[in-house]
Design a protein that fits this description.
The structure is a single chain. With 437 residues, the protein is α/β, with parallel strands linked by helices. The protein is 40% helix and 15% strand. The strands form 2 sheets. It has a 7-stranded mixed sheet with strand order 7-6-8-9-10-11-12. Strands 2-3-4-1-5 form a 5-stranded parallel sheet, with helices on both faces. It is globular and about 65 Å long. It starts with 5 loop residues before the first helix and ends in an 11-residue tail after the last strand.
Length: 437
């Protein structure tokens, strides 16, 4: 199971001097596998400390935080020799050991030749952080491209990466996209789906649903463990309301998150700001801010915190929480459930580093996403989940804002690759948006 982020990590290894790596991401998105199994292949030896599994490793950071002292303590605790000039040290779930987080600063300043990589699922909740002293990356669930890689179908992968525009490629890729809608991108769910092809489809579906159920249960346990003084029930209420509010619309655009009815006796944004922020910092929720009027760059300058759409970080878990069947997805009873397509596009944008994202609203018209290019021009992106591609909202945006180009993501094959103004792309090519704006 390969990951797109690996290319950047190998480049990090090749630098003459480097800051420690810090991989942030929700629990079970594959951080340990990425560092130990994929990046680890580039090193003669890998030594991994897991502070969640073995809290006793925190003793290595109890005294001096000089790199030499820390490495010496690690060797004593593990009984293993570590050569920092050639070997990789992984500090897993580093958020469980605040002193280890602080030590990253000293590795950056005093030992820039060492290969130090840390990961954590609660990095966003840390009270102190070595700003400017780490090379930080966010690991999201597998993207659609990574899902295709896991399928081990080289012909189809080649067609996707060449952005092949043919009826045959469209049929195969859209079929895989609906599989992805069901499994999502959590590594265990994807591995379960592709590693059990000898089983019946019913068994494979049930196996994936079991993985999803265990993951959701684990996240809910974390609410109580890591919420601190915040009400864990309030966090869970917001988390559970994201799918239910998304599913409240069919072929219309996803609406702003409504605070009324989420939790008893609470109905104002100020009462939900902290739990929403908590879920966002833990990478479990994705934000999309609604812009009104004529969009201008930088888009973030015009955002209003309470005017926010919330998406779940993984479309497979979203479908699981809604109890949507695999059969319903494959039979395209989903055609008019545009929120699934929107959640998918939001995930793809987040994997490209566009998160939070932005959308547009003007009385009766809505555009799902706005993306600015390097010249500061804003491109509207309309999302249509099925074969219905009429977009009155997009026409309204064109009339009022006169964009230099538009992009529509649909369940159809798309427009000619040479079209440069009114671009129509299949949903599964969402990751190629930036190349067209």
């Amino acid at each position: 199971m390969n990951r797109l982020l690996l290319t950047k990590l190998i480049a990090w290894k090749g630098q003459a001097e480097r800051k420690p790596l810090l991989i942030d991401g929700a629990r079970q998105t594959g951080k340990t596998f990425l560092l130990q199994e994929l990046l680890g292949r580039e090193f003669p030896h890998v030594l991994r400390l897991d502070f969640l599994e073995t809290p006793e490793f925190a003793a290595a950071f109890a005294g001096s935080l000089s790199p030499k002292a820390v490495i010496s303590n690690i060797e004593l605790l593990t009984g293993k020799i570590f050569n920092p000039e050639t070997d990789l040290l992984i500090l897993d779930e580093i958020g469980e050991c605040p002193r280890a987080v602080t030590a990253l600063k000293y590795f950056a300043e005093q030992a820039p030749g060492y290969f130090i990589a840390a990961s954590g699922s609660n990095i966003g909740l840390l009270n102190s952080f070595p700003v400017g002293k780490v090379e930080q990356h966010n690991l999201r669930p597998l993207t659609f491209r990574e899902f295709l890689w896991a399928s081990n179908e080289p012909i189809l992968i080649n067609a996707y990466e060449a952005q092949t525009d043919s009826a045959a490629a469209h049929t195969k890729l859209f079929d895989k996209l609906t599989d992805y809608y069901f499994t999502g991108g959590m590594p265990e769910a994807v591995a379960t789906w592709f590693n059990n092809t000898e089983k019946s489809i019913v068994e494979r579906v049930n196996d994936v649903r079991k993985v999803h159920a265990d993951l959701i249960a684990g996240y809910k346990r974390d609410f109580g463990k890591y919420s601190g003084k915040m009400d864990a029930q309030l966090i869970e209420a917001v988390f559970s309301n994201i799918p239910s509010q998304l599913s409240a619309v069919l072929d219309e655009s996803v609406k702003r998150f409504k605070f009324k009815g989420v939790f008893e006796r609470k109905s104002r944004y100020a009462e939900f700001e902290s739990p929403i922020s908590w879920l966002h910092r833990c990478r479990l929720a994705l934000k999309n801010f609604v812009i009104e009027g004529r969009p201008r760059t930088p888009l973030a300058a015009y955002q209003k915190d309470k005017m926010v759409k919330l998406f779940l970080f993984d479309v497979g878990l979203l479908n699981h929480m809604l109890n949507t069947s695999y059969k319903e997805i494959k039979l395209q009873g989903y055609e008019y459930k545009g929120y699934i397509a929107e959640n998918f596009v939001q995930q793809e944008l987040a994997a490209m580093g566009i998160e939070p994202s932005f959308s547009w609203n003007d009385s009766r018209a809505e555009i799902e996403f706005l993306v600015a290019n390097e010249a500061g021009l804003v491109v509207p992106i309309e999302v249509k989940s099925g074969n219905r591609t009429r977009a009155r909202s997009l026409q309204s945006y064109i009339t009022k804002c006169a964009p230099h180009k538009t992009i529509k993501l649909t369940g159809t094959q798309g427009s000619s690759p040479t079209e440069q103004t009114y671009i129509v792309m299949p949903l599964y090519y969402a990751e190629y948006i930036l190349g067209r704006i």
